[in-house]
Structure formats: C-alpha cells, structure tokens
Amino acid sequence: MPRPLAWIGRLLFVVIAVVVLTPAVVGWRVWYEARQDERPRSDAIIVLGAAQYDGRPSPYFEYRLRHAFALYRDGVAPAIVTVGGKQTGDRVTEAAAGRDFLIKLGAEAGDIVAVETGRDTLQSMVAVGAVYRERSWDSGVVVTDPWHSLRSNKMAQDNGIDAVSSPTRSGPSVRTRDTQFQSIVRETGGYLYYVLLGRSRHTM
C-alpha cells in the first residue's frame, strides 16, 4: 500500500493541476468564443449595455450597437433587445440610450425592446429571460465585446435563451494586445466565479 506521504504527494499534485489547468482551460474557452461569429436566423439580437453619458453611449457601447444594427439590417433577427439599467447618478438607462441610438441609425422603434433592468450582466440576462418567456421567444444572438461572449452566452442559456454570439470586432475592447489580454484574464475570473457561485462579479 502507498505510504501516507505518497498519498499526500498525489493529492497535492491533483490540487495543483486543478488550480493551474482549470483557469487555463477557461481562458482558452474565453479566447475561442471571442473568435466565433454566429448569425443564425433568430428571434432577437440581444445587445448588452455598457456605460452611457446622459443618453450618449460610451465608445464600448456604441460599437456594440452599431454591430447589432448591422445584424438587424442584414435580417438576422426582426427585433433588437437593448439591455441595462441605471448606474448611480444616471438619469437615463443604458437600455434607453441604446434604443435611442439604434433609432437614429435607422432601426424601427417598434422593433426595439428596451429592458431597463440590471446593473450587471447576470441581472440583465435574468430580465431578458423574462421578456423572452412573455413573448414566447427562444433564440437570440448576443452582441457584446469578444471576451465577454462566453460568460454572456452562459448566463443567457441559463435563463432559457438558445443563445449564440456575434461579438463586435471594432472599438476599444480590441484595440491593443494589452487590452485583449487583460480582458481575457478578467473574463476567466468572472466566468469561474459565476459557474462556481452562480453570481456575477458586477462586470459588464
């Protein structure tokens, strides 16, 4: 029979392997999902909110909205769902700012559903899931930054949405290698936190 020290050594090896390999695998999945661009015919395009300044979308948000509008214009879905509530001190929700911006781009107002609930991705996806159930929708194309796609899709699927991702390829989220690396590290932690604890780390 193996000696106690041998068992301890094996246990430590397994623990270290799990601690090292799990983040590495998730990080690879974040990177891989960021490279996908799926555009099946769907019930709606779900564009996740980011900061807005008194009704004006931030650069991150603007690029998401422009990409969502391009999908809508190409006939990927007949509706766009804008997502996001208010942060402290805001007068306008992210969802409302996104809706107004899409209308200026040329989207029909009646084709936009503004879900003005949620201060993070998880809260927003819970609210979007409720809207989907009310409208008997099933499928959605999630538009966000590339590195945010894996976690966003997981949260959407956990709320009853048959979700795929078509992330934006332009804007500050993909501008530099440093930004991309930092985003992958952050999203790896965010995904693990959500999967292990079922909660959001309040990152959008």
- For the record, the count of structural domains works out to 1
Main sheet: which strands, in order across? 5-4-1-6-7
- Rg, rounded, reads 19 Å
Summarize the helix and strand pattern as letters.
HEEEHEHEHEHEH
Q: Name the helicity range.
A: 40-55%
Distance from first to last alpha carbon: 52 Å
Number of H/I helices: 6
Which structural class do the helices and strands define? Answer: alpha/beta
CATH architecture: 3-Layer(aba) Sandwich
- How does the major sheet shape up? 5 strands, parallel
Whole-number average pLDDT?
Answer: 87
Biased composition (Polar residues): 165-177
Pfam family, one: DUF218
Organism: Actinocorallia aurantiaca
Protein name: YdcF family protein
Describe the structure.
It comes from Actinocorallia aurantiaca. This is YdcF family protein. Residues 158-177 are annotated as: Disordered. Residues 165-177 have a biased composition (Polar residues). Residues 43-189 form the DUF218 domain. This protein is of the alpha/beta class and 204 residues long. The protein has a single domain (32-197), classed as Rossmann fold (3-Layer(aba) Sandwich). It is 51% helix and 12% strand. It has 6 helices and 7 strands; from the N terminus they run H-E-E-E-H-E-H-E-H-E-H-E-H. It has helices at 4-34, 59-73, 94-105, 121-135, 149-158, 177-197; strands spanning 44-47, 52-53, 56-57, 80-83, 112-115, 139-143, 162-165. Strands 5-4-1-6-7 form a 5-stranded parallel beta sheet. A two-stranded antiparallel ribbon has the order 2-3. Strand 2 and strand 3 (56-57) form a beta hairpin. Helix 1 (4-34) packs across helix 6. The chain is globular and about 70 Å long. The mean pLDDT is 87.
